[in-house]
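User: Could you go from structure to sequence for me? I need the amino acid at each position, not a summary. Structure tokens:
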């Protein structure tokens, strides 16, 4: 009788541990790229996933077998209503070289933004803000980084019914420190469009939370082989066979647990188009589970994780591709057929 194989390749990536639920629906950005821009601008934007469709574009990748020809690609539409900076935060270097908050300035936002739904205890003192602005301008040599706390406007979208804005801290890049400080103070309370942060043909990183699938078994969660059913003493076939007697090996053995609703980052997604009229990309009958796109939008090449209505963060690429495409691929056709 032939001996059964006693080894198998490991299942699942160890680089995404722990596979637990995300801490928040709109994740914080943990790292920021170093950009070389003449003028300061925010390095990230928040949008809401509307849905997917397909488009026909002219392939502009040199060396591709379909170079110069029409190809069909899947695209994702993300609705990006204007965001409003509600605060500017200034950082300085601490005793151990890490960033510490120097001070922050809050804006007097209109009640129509409904920021009180998110921060019910917020009260802005104009005199205190003036003193903090003066403190920052007098200590420009100590300022290391400048950030903006932006608030979204979900009421302007066509597929969301919520009114509570999402808050995200976004780093300001480009220019000198003096330019960043002046920009952050001057833009407080004023809407920022997606077109002033990104441009078509640019690569972005997408940060968000994947679609949740609940508690799943080891077969679906890791794709391991099901145990032979003729072994009645195994107490089942869709279960963990052996967790190994080695100390510390328990965490690396595929086991049942949470699947989906994980924080993930996808690098270098190409922006095909940015527009202000959302009706240009809405299919007949609207996007399933979302509806219409009423404000500005971004079309990304490829898929984006998460269900419709999921907030996603678009960040400047932290490790952009080495090869830059010669120009923007021309969009010949965008499918507006019903997705129902």
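Assistant: Here is the amino acid at each position, in order:
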């Amino acid at each position: 009788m032939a001996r059964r194989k006693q080894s198998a390749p490991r299942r699942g990536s160890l680089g995404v541990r722990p596979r637990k639920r995300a801490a928040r629906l709109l994740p914080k950005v943990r790292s920021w790229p170093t950009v070389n821009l003449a003028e300061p601008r925010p390095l990230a934007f928040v949008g809401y996933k509307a849905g997917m469709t397909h488009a026909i574009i002219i392939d502009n990748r040199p060396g591709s077998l379909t170079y110069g020809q029409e190809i069909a690609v899947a695209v994702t539409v993300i609705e990006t209503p204007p965001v409003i900076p509600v605060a500017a935060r200034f950082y300085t270097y601490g005793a151990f070289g890490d960033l510490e908050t120097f001070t922050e300035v809050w804006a007097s936002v209109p009640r129509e933004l409904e920021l009180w739904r998110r921060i019910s205890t917020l009260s802005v003192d104009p005199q205190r803000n003036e003193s903090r602005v003066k403190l920052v301008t007098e200590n420009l040599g100590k300022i290391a980084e400048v950030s903006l706390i932006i608030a979204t406007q979900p009421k302007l979208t066509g597929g969301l019914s919520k009114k509570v804005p999402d808050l995200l801290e976004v780093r300001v890049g480009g220019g000198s420190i003096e330019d960043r400080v002046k920009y952050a103070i001057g833009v407080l309370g004023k809407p920022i469009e997606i077109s002033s942060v990104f441009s078509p043909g640019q690569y972005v990183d997408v940060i968000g939370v994947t679609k949740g699938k609940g508690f799943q078994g080891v077969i679906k969660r890791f794709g391991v082989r099901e145990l032979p059913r003729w072994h009645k003493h195994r107490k089942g076939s869709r279960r963990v066979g052996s967790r190994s007697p080695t100390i510390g090996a328990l965490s690396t053995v595929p086991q049942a647990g949470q699947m989906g609703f994980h924080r993930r980052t996808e690098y270098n997604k190409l922006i095909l188009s940015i527009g202000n009229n959302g009706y240009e990309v809405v299919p007949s009958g609207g996007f399933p589970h979302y509806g219409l796109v009423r404000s500005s939008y971004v079309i990304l090449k490829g898929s984006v994780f998460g269900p419709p209505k999921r907030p996603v963060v678009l960040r400047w690429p932290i490790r952009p591709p080495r090869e830059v495409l010669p120009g923007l691929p021309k969009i010949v056709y965008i499918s507006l057929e019903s997705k129902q």
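One structural detail worth keeping in mind: The mean pLDDT is 92.
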